[in-house]
Hints:
The complex is a heterodimer.
Chain A: E1 4-9, H1 18-26, H2 33-38, E2 46-53, E3 60-67, H3 76-79, E4 85-87, E5 93-95, H4 105-109, E6 116-117, E7 144-145, H5 151-163, H6 176-180, E8 186-190, H7 197-202, E9 207-208, E10 220-223
Parallel strand pairs in A: 1-10
Antiparallel strand pairs in A: 1-8, 2-3, 4-5, 6-7, 9-10
Chain B: H1 2-6, H2 10-22, H3 26-52, H4 67-91, H5 101-115, H6 117-121, H7 148-168, H8 172-179, H9 185-193, H10 201-234, H11 246-272, H12 281-312, H13 315-325, H14 330-342, H15 344-349, H16 356-382, H17 398-421, H18 427-439
Helix pairs in contact in B: 3-17, 4-5, 4-10, 4-11, 4-16, 5-7, 5-17, 7-10, 8-9, 10-11, 11-12, 11-16, 13-16, 14-16
Amino acid sequence: xxxxxxxxxxxRCTGCxxxxxxxxxxxxxxxxxxxxxxxxxxxxxxxVERYWEGEYPxxxxxxxxxxxxxxxxxPCEPVCPVYATYHNPEGLNAQVYNRCIGTRFCANNCxxxxxxxxxFDHHWEKPLDEQLNPDVSIxxxxxxxxxxxxxxxxxxxxxxxxxxxxxxxxxxxxPACVQSCPTEAMVFGDLxxxxxxxSQRARxxxxxxxxxxxxxxxxxxxxxxxxxxxP
Amino acid sequence: MSDETGSLTTRMMHEDLIRPVVFTxxxxxxxxxxxxxxxxxxxxxxxxxxxxxxxxxxxxxPVFWGVYIATYIFFIGISNAGTLIxxxxxxxxAGWRHPVTRCAEAITVFALMVGGMxxxxxxxxxxxxxxxxxxxxxxxxxxxxxxxxxxDFMAINTYLLGSxxxxxxxMLPDLALIRDRVNGWRRRFYxxxxxxxxxxxxxxxxxxxxxxxxxxxxxxxxxxxxxxxxWDFSVALKPMWHSTIFAPYFVVGALFSxxxxxxxxxxxxxxxxHLEAYLEPIHFNNLGLLLLMFCCLWLYFTFAEYLxxxxxxxxxxxxxxxxxxxxxxxxxxxxxxxxxxxxxVPILAVRKTRTVTGCLVASLSILxxxxxxxxxxxxxxxxxxxxxxAWGHYAPTWVEMxxxxxxxxxxxxxxxxxxxxxxxxSIWEFKQGRRLRERRPTRxxxxxxxxxxxxxxxxx
Lengths: 231, 460
């Protein structure tokens, strides 16, 4: 059983948001529009946060893509009254859409604020509905959702590996965000396999995890250099 | 005081307290119609929200909870008080309690009924609410007993059942009294509700025993109820929610707002039903003093809560702290301090202003202040999550305000109907109190539960 994890090298991230777009396309995320976004209802499973470092003129924008951290000790899980959010055997924080009754407690208790609520039903105008991903269900109003690490791609890779009578190899699974990253800042794989690319990168001295002090044990590992040299 | 009460004959008492049951004035219909309209409006707004989606409310990311949850805590808070106050007064044998207990107990039941609706109103998919109920089903699915929301569900239902029994049981002798004095459908109605009460010494003895047992049992139930509501917040990993004093803080706030609503209800009942001889200034004086004590307790808890947050100065905690104290919620915060302490304390501390009107003004101020406190707790923390990028703001929409108005109107409507159908002052307890006072003319006479009741009769 794999322990899925992701490494995001912040020193490589350019903040281009290709990951955000790819995620929208892969996971059937609706476009809610300017007005709803201004109300704080952006429908993104991954967002690129921007921070400023230093003082003008020695200033630099830093980007940090934030997605569900797939915590080992996830604060979202125990608070759900109906087990709609639960820990699956591979350590993912799975969300059972049709079990969710919409208390939104999980979203409140997520220190990373990465859960997304369906404030309305969503519609895709023709012919945009043609591009919906058939592997991902459409969520209706009143449900909570969030990044799944593209669980449909994990399933597909596993089925293929089973058909070919082998184990999943490193690199077989690539979530949409990882696949689309032009600078290869993101790497996905099995953290239990010490030779996987993700494990190798996770051993970097630049590694840290977001809000690590809360003890949530995230599966997303960030890399960031101590020093920054002006180019 | 005993002089005034002493001059009331039993006949006058029956006349005063049973008259509203039989006689219906025009004001009653007007009030019911008006409240009913507001309830219908709120219902329509809720229907719109269910059909369209939670997006018609002002909640968003990161403020996933808003007015609904704030009002939920508020109503559960005021529900806490009725039964708890009544039980404490009974157990401490407060001699002045007799006219107060029933209107307090009724507040509990109705506030719980209304408060309990809010978790459902706020559900994204309310049509699946029954998944919160642990019922055996073919798929073997159970609710998650680790979730405070399931504790909530249990606590509300336990407390609702307990406080209903605690309201109903002491009503039996009065229901029988009315049954024996009215005709037609009313006789059948009250006869059915009186459960065949005939007033034998054995019945009296059992009733008193049952009430004193219930009064003891209901106190931990009431306290656990509001503690569970507090744990909805304090078990969460949120700055300024994750606090160990939240449970007692919420219980104190609950009693605080509960006494306030009790006073408001008593003032209105006194005016509407002309109960000046029953709800005397001494009751308001005593409840005013109790309220004064809770003003101080509330300030103490609030101070303790904010002091340690500020002194610790953890960045995550300071964000919601600043947002409340000096950010855009500052008017709410300082309004709360004004309404909960600055305004009521002088009124209640000075004997001259601790009048019926004074108590009413202080109580209304406290009710607003306590709602603000609940709002601050919910919105103040949620707007400032740990990652600064996700910070947000919140303002309620017309849908939320309509539903809020509708539920408040519903609460008042239930209370109006109750006080119309049933004597809002416990007639037999009032007689009992008066008799004991006459026998031993001190103000606070201990009433022993197992004392026989030769003096209390249905008919004189």
